[in-house]
Every structure is written in structure tokens, then in C-alpha cells.
Specification:
The chain has 472 residues and is of the alpha+beta class. The chain has 14 helices and 12 strands. The chain has a 5-stranded antiparallel sheet. Helix 2 packs antiparallel against helix 4, helix 6 crosses helix 7 and helix 10 packs across helix 14. Belongs to the CdaR family.
Length: 472
């Protein structure tokens, strides 16, 4: 057998019986039985041509990145080379860039590989090639691995076409180039984020100087400070101070959480100020004087839905608070405090994942400021007696009856309708409640005490700090 050396990189195809010069790189090759020298030469030339194409493709993709191209440019180049839709996603499946023919791209997004928000379901889509039933199911996924570990994924959809080994190998080569692009963008973003974070912290603390200077500074950072805004705070429900996660894991999760908000807000308004801090993400959302509170909450709910997805891919549960509108920078610190309070109280009142406007808090605003949780519990016990706990099976039902009576201003007919009770049944319950609590139907001060106690009980543990486990 003879030695064939057509590899442009200087490698040698190892043929049976051939000697190998010292220092040469040998590519092992499975030789079909009965293949003669001409067949081997043809096979070697085919392999050499594949290697040349792969090298050309790699150089092309690399030049795209080196020339300053973004991940979107890299994705477009790769889609053109493969002639199929291609996406680059984050580690939890948010699509950073996509490219391909519009119809083919839409068909790919319509597959079961994506959730309704357009997130690639990384928790279900394994790395490698996948084939399933129906049309547009042939797809391949490769990891993008950078210096800090897995940075994302590249996904290619072949539709009804079978992806070849060359296609898969090309995706793997492209992933190394994508890692370079992501690392470069992260380095640039880290510098930009440092200055943006400092500016937003100063703005929320009231230290940005005159309005014109602050607006000009924000503009230089790529942000627009609108004449009328609301502050939106998205705060993670998980307490990182008592977590079993490592500091690196917590940092990675928070960075992912912040990037999700930045992308969600950027899709709506790319110049809206948004920045992640230690355990929260703060957004200054521009509104008009005609924008109603319901519209604001609708926009915030849409943003939260995009960030939350279906909860997969390592996403964190979070609660969101929204401030009252502000029309000057001097009011930002107050609005920030309102949004924080709305997020905290909303979580206490409705549980994890709540979205709460400051104006919805009502009396809860005051209750949340009471520093002594032990005193709150004692107040509830003194006011409600046996109804303060669920030791008695009737307690919950009687508390509900009392709440509806107070909310309807003791309108027995209306309360009966709401509770689906017969009028006489409700009268009997009122008598029973007055024996337990006192003459609340005739004593307005007692009614006020009972109403406050019921609100405190509804927000049980509100005065307990979620962060430290001590009073706020």
C-alpha cells in the first residue's frame, strides 16, 4: 500500500502497510475490504476536500467575529453555510440570535422544541442530533463552551433533511467561534455594565445631579430617561443568604436572571434603563400621562411572563413591584422604595411570583412598616382570640364570615349573597362571632381593631425580614 498525503494541513492518511515519517500527524481511517489503490486515493482526496472545506468554513466564521461581527452575524453566516435555520441560545434557552429563511425559521419555532414564549427547552433537548415524529423535527444541538464553562448552545433545524456528520462537525467547529464572540461581548458588556450600574445606583439614591446632566449621562450610556417613568423591581424569591448553593452558582443564576430582564425589556424599548444588582433587577419604564395603572401592570406582566417562561432552564422564581409614576429625577429614590415595598408586601400577601403595584397595598403599607413581629402576633391574638389560629376547625370559616361582613359594612343581605348563606344562617353566625369577639356590629372601634387584625393575619410573618429572619 502507498501513502497518500493530500491534506493541506500536512497530515497523512494512514493506509495499511504504509510507513509514517517522524513528526507527521496520522488520521486513522477505516478501509473497506477489497479497496484498491485508486479507490484509496479517491477516498483520501474526498477526505482532504472535506478538511479543506471545514478549514475554509472555520476561517470564514472566525473572520466574521474578528472583524467585529456579533452573534447575530455569526448565526447568519452559519445558516447560510448549512442552508437551514440556526439559533444561538443562552444556557437556559433564551434565543440570542437566529437566522434562516423566514418560513423555515417560523416552522422551527413552531416545533415542540420551544415553549410559547420562544424559549428553547434546554431541559428536554439533549445535546446531539434528535429525530422525532412529524415534520421539522430533525435538529442538532451543540454546546458553546467558553473559559467560564458552558455559555450557551447552537441549534440547527434540518427539517425533513437528515443532518450529516459533516453538518454536526461544522456546528461543533462553529461553537468554538461562538465562544469567542460571546467572551468578547461579555467583556464589553462587563465594562458597560459597571458604569451603567454606578449611574443607576446614584439615580436611585438621588445623587445624579441636575436633570440635564443626568439625561446627558444616561444618553451616553445608551439609555433614555423619559419625562414620566415608573420604577419596576424584580426581586428573586429565593433567599441567597441561606442557600446551599455555592457563591459561584448564585452569581451565575443572578447574572442569568438579569440578562433575561435586559433582553425582555430591550425587545420592547432598547433604550430603557435596566440593570441587575445583587438580588434584584431594576427597570425604569417610560410611560405617558395617558397611561393608566392597568396598562402599566399589563406591560409589566408581559415582561415577567417572558422572563419567567415555563420556569425551566434554571430560571428563578421572582416577585415584582411597581412604583407610582415619577416626573422628575429627584423622586426616583421614593419610587424605588415604593417598588421594593410593593415587591416585598406582594410576596407576603400573594406568595412567590406576585406582581404588585404600590397603590394596591393600602393598609398593608403601614402594617409592613411595624418593626416588631412579636407585637403584631400578640395584637392578632388579643383581637381575634381563638380565631387567630386554626386549632378550631370552624376558625377559618368564621374568619371568612367576619371579613366579608366588615368589607360589606355589615350589609347582611350582601354578605349572605357573597358567602352563599341563607340570611338566617348568617344572622346565627353574627351572634356567635359577637359572643367570641364582642359587639363589633355596634362598636366601630372594635370593628377597626378586628379589620386590622384580619389584615395582619392575612400577611402572617410580614414584619419578619425575608433576608435575615429578624425584624425589619
Amino acid at each position: 500500500m502507498e501513502k497518500v498525503a493530500n491534506d493541506p494541513a500536512g497530515s497523512v492518511i494512514d493506509l495499511p502497510g504504509a510507513s509514517v515519517p517522524a513528526g507527521e500527524v496520522v488520521l486513522p481511517l477505516d478501509i473497506p475490504e477489497g479497496l484498491d489503490a485508486d479507490g484509496l486515493r479517491t477516498l483520501a482526496e474526498h477526505l482532504a476536500a472535506a478538511l479543506r472545506r471545514e478549514d475554509e468554513v472555520h476561517r470564514s466564521l472566525l473572520s466574521t467575529v474578528v472583524a467585529g461581527g456579533s452573534q447575530a452575524d455569526l448565526c447568519a453566516a452559519l445558516a447560510g453555510l448549512l442552508d437551514m435555520p440556526v439559533m444561538i441560545t443562552t444556557t437556559d434557552g433564551r434565543v440570542i440570535a437566529d437566522a434562516g429563511e423566514p418560513e423555515a425559521l417560523a416552522a422551527a419555532y413552531a416545533t415542540s422544541a420551544f415553549d410559547p414564549t420562544g424559549r428553547f427547552l434546554v431541559e428536554h433537548e439533549l445535546v446531539g442530533e434528535r429525530t422525532g415524529e412529524g415534520e421539522w423535527v430533525r435538529r442538532a444541538t451543540v454546546r458553546i463552551v467558553g473559559g467560564s464553562g458552558v455559555e450557551g448552545r447552537i441549534v440547527a433545524f434540518g427539517g425533513s433533511r437528515v443532518l450529516s456528520r459533516n453538518d454536526i462537525h461544522l456546528l461543533e467547529r462553529a461553537s468554538t467561534v461562538a465562544a469567542l464572540a460571546i467572551t468578547r461581548e461579555q467583556a464589553v458588556t462587563a465594562v458597560e455594565s459597571k458604569y451603567r450600574a454606578e449611574f443607576l445606583r446614584d439615580a436611585l439614591a438621588g445623587r445624579v445631579g441636575s436633570g440635564l446632566d443626568a439625561i446627558a449621562h444616561a444618553d451616553s450610556l445608551g439609555w433614555t430617561l423619559a419625562p414620566r417613568m415608573v420604577v419596576v423591581v424584580a426581586e428573586t424569591d429565593e433567599d441567597d443568604a441561606i442557600t446551599e448553593r455555592t457563591a459561584e452558582e448564585v452569581r451565575g443564576l443572578q447574572q442569568r436572571f438579569a440578562r433575561a430582564w435586559v433582553r425582555a425589556v430591550g425587545a420592547r424599548d432598547r433604550r430603557a434603563p435596566v440593570m441587575g444588582f445583587s438580588q434584584e433587577v431594576v427597570t425604569l419604564l417610560a410611560i405617558t400621562p395617558e397611561t393608566a395603572t392597568e396598562q402599566v401592570m399589563g406591560v409589566v406582566a408581559d415582561l415577567a411572563r417572558v422572563v419567567r417562561g415555563d420556569g425551566g432552564g434554571g430560571r428563578r422564581s421572582f416577585s415584582t413591584g411597581v412604583s407610582r409614576p415619577v416626573t422628575d429625577l429627584a423622586s426616583l429614590p421614593t419610587a424605588y422604595a415604593e417598588a421594593l415595598r410593593a415587591a416585598a408586601v406582594g410576596r407576603q400577601k400573594h406568595g412567590s411570583g406576585a406582581i404588585t403595584h404600590f397603590d394596591e397595598l393600602g393598609i398593608y403599607r403601614l402594617l409592613s412598616l411595624v418593626p416588631d413581629s412579636a407585637e403584631l402576633r400578640q395584637f392578632v391574638t388579643d383581637a381575634l382570640g381563638d380565631l387567630a389560629t386554626d386549632d378550631n376547625p370552624e376558625s377559618e370559616g368564621l374568619r371568612q364570615t367576619l371579613t366579608v361582613l366588615i368589607d360589606t359594612n355589615l350589609n347582611v343581605a350582601e354578605a349572605s349573597r357573597i358567602l352563599f348563606f341563607h340570611y338566617n344562617t348568617l344572622r346565627y353566625r353574627i351572634v356567635k362571632l359577637e359572643r367570641m369577639l364582642g359587639p363589633f356590629t355596634t362598636d366601630p372601634q372594635l370593628r377597626l381593631t378586628l379589620a386590622l387584625a384580619l389584615k395582619v393575619l392575612e400577611m402572617r410573618g410580614l414584619a419578619q425580614s425575608r433576608r435575615s429572619g429578624t425584624s425589619e
